[in-house]
Structure formats: C-alpha cells, structure tokens
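hey can u check if this looks right to u? its 411 residues, i copy pasted from the old doc so theres a chance i mangled smth
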Amino acid sequence: MSIEKQCIICRKTKDNFNDEHVIPDSILGYYHIYSVCYDCNSLMGKNIDCKLTNHKLIELYRYTNGLRGKSGKLPNPFKGDHTMKDDPEQGVRLDLNADGIPVPHFIYRSLSTPGKLQFAIDAKDRNKKDLIIKKLLDRNNLTNDQVTFAESKIVDENPIISGEFKIDFIEFRLAILKIAYEFCVDMCPQYINDTKALEISQILLNADISKMKSSLHFFGDGFNDTIFSAFGKFIDYKNENHYLILTNQQAGKLVCYVNLFDIFHLGIEMSNEKIKVPGKIIIGKNDIQRKMFQTYNIYELAENISRNGNYEFHYEFSSEAEFEQFSLNELRKDFNFFSINGIIPLFDSAGNIKYDDIEQKVSTVEFSNLDGDNTLNTYSMNENLYVRHMPINKLFKVIAIKRKAFPGTKV
C-alpha cells in the first residue's frame, strides 16, 4: 500500500518513493532516505550526483583504490583527448583493459597528400580498414582499379602520450549541496519549512548552478581541509570515510560541513536562521569498512573521547569557614574525592548518593561552552549536588563541572 507524502525536492505530494542514496552508491555511500520521489531520485542521479561521481579527483580515487561501479567496471580517469608527445597531430585515447590497465588506442588520422591517399589507424581497428578505404575512394571519385595499395606497420613499445586533466572547481558543489540538504532535512524535520531550504530544493530540482553561486554561502574552496580542523578533536577524518557535520554557528546560522574521502571539504550555510539541532551538533559517519552510516550527538562524542577524563569542580561555599576548611583539605597530600571503584558519585544535601557516576548527570546537561584543543566542557548544575572530600569526609556543593578530555577514540 502506497502512502502519499511530500517529496523534499519537488515538494509535491507523491505516492511513489524509493531508496535515495544521500551519498552516492558509487562512492560507497550507506546513508539512505525515503523522502525523495521516484522522478526526483532519477533527476538527482542524472543531473546532480554525476557532478561528484564523474569528478576527476573522484575518478582517480576510485581507480587507484579499485572501487568498481555497479557494472563491475572501474572508472577511467584517463579518458579524454591525448596526443603523441613526438607527434602532436596524432590523437590517442586511453582505454582500460579487463584488468584496469590503461591501453593506448590511436585515433584514425588522414595523411593524404596530392596524388596520394594515406591514413593511419590503430592495429585494433584493422577490421575497419576496408570500410575506411571505400569511403576515401568514394570521396575522391576513385575505384579500386585506379589505385595501388600498400600497407606499413609501425610499432612503438613505449609511446609517450601527452594530455591534460580538467578539474572542476564549481559544479561539484551542487552534488555536495544535495548531500547537505538531505542530511539537514533528515536530522531536523522542521528545516523543510525554512526559507533557505525551499530555495535549495529548487536549486537542486533545476540543477541551477548559477542560482547556487549567487544565493548560497560556502565555507572553504572544497579542497582545503582547514575548515575541518576545529572538529579534529572529535573525528578522525584523515581516512577513507565520509563525514557530515550539522551545527549552528556562533552567528546563529545553520551550517553543514561535508568531508568525502578526505578529498572534498566544504561547508555550506543552510539557513539564515538558527535551527534547533538535536544535541547542538550532529556528526554523521559513513563507515566504509563497516558498510554503515551512523550519527553522533555532542554528548555521545564527548563520552566517546573522554569517558574517563579529569574533572574540575566549581563550588559554592556557605561561609568563609567552609571555604577555609575546603582549601586546607585540598593542600593535604592524602586529599582525594570519595569514589567507588574509581568512580566519583554525586550526593544530595543529606549525604545520599544521587548519581552513582558523574557521567549520569553531565549526560543530561547541555554544555555551557566548548573551548580549546583540550576539549574543556563545562556543565552547569541545575540542582543541588555535592561531592565528598576525603579524608575529612565532608560534602561540598558543586555548581558546575568541567570535564577535561584526553585524546581517545575519535569518531
């Protein structure tokens, strides 16, 4: 039974939806959504994804790493017009054999001079020789009886071929925009009604590169990974995986960052408004080894990289005497926090354990800041909680907890 719903691209109500690869299948994308109608899905592949999958840098990466397409063939990054270095008039194309090795194929070339019809072809095209001769004779109003035929063979074991690569610096952004847009809509459903989201869906529907260039703000040139350096404390993006990051900038605007194969690195301003992002930041990891796509929020990231990091406490003292008692105890060589099996609990004012583990509390409180390379995370307490100082066995009220993470397992 088909269910009618709105397509996020054409924004029409449809009942024919199929599997949309947010990240193209040919670059090992494992992130799927089901909110793009059949017609738009086809358009995205034909007009948008191809800007990325056919990009010369992607073709080179896939070729080098043996990433074959659905047909089982490797992409040919060497296709295009080439010439012999010592004979610039002789055109050459490079085909891939069954093993993916480039093989030169010499392109038909006319060498005719007055009174002499002559041409050169690749040895693999020898079966076309008679047809070519017939066309030449017809074109010159000649018959076989009027000419003398001669054939020579030239063998070049190590031909030096000259050519050039053309690298797109603009159009690939359209494909990355599609990835970012679909990620935003999937992670933040309310985003679909955003003014900028409507504009982006129309840009994608029409593959409107001109509108994209004039209306959208990009961060980075697409190739320099500097824009990802701020996320290096959370993710290890120097690998073959793909990463998508969704967050609000300090200016309050929604931004999506896309990293593909550590080749493309691009940030896109997705909204002029602050859109509520669950957990403040969402990082999506397309894990190529595990063949899966997984998302992490800021709390899961912090737990992933700093589960047993150091804690710093901010206290509130009821009197100068309490502060003096606190200070003298911290100077003792045997000072420590009360813990159970190395885990520090949080107490209520009566001395009862309220949280067996500090992490139980901080996981429910949003960061009040994220600061510096040490990932110093501050959590303000929204209830009266205490830690017990040893050896004096006294409770002190905590108003904030700072957790200083050590480098650990990154996403």
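Residues 82-162 form one domain.
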